[in-house]
Specification:
Layout (H helix, E strand, L loop, with lengths): L1 E3 L20 E3 L11 H4 L22 E2 L22 H10 L9
Parallel strand pairs: 1-2, 2-3
């Protein structure tokens, strides 16, 4: 399973997806505004932490693998769609994951 620009996952840990944790991958571009979609954004009385839909799949506590994505365009919400740009590091890494070549993935 591959998460890109995820607003959170509705489970606490990668193994809760009923997959081996080493088959779960995630990345979020530095300028992707989805990172601002936190629980605290919706409900200020909740401490800052997880994303709006649950655990951040990029976090160490989630237990999957992280892969590199380019930072993306810092203007507006453009970065949220740039994971699929031809030649992008995210697209290359996704290709390695899908092809079963995890040793070539850039963390």
């Amino acid at each position: 399973m591959i998460f890109v620009g995820s607003p959170g996952v509705g489970v606490d840990h990668a193994t809760d997806l009923h997959l081996p944790a080493d088959h779960v991958w995630a990345s979020t571009a530095e300028h992707d505004p989805i990172q601002e979609a936190t629980v605290a954004w919706v409900n200020p009385s909740v401490p800052f932490g997880d994303l709006i839909f649950g655990t951040d799949p990029n976090s160490a506590k989630f237990g999957g693998h992280h892969f590199h994505s380019d930072p993306g365009d810092p203007n507006g919400d453009i970065a949220h769609g740039q994971y699929w740009d031809r030649g992008s590091s995210s697209l290359k890494n996704i290709g390695y994951i899908v092809a079963g070549q995890p040793s070539k993935v850039t963390p």
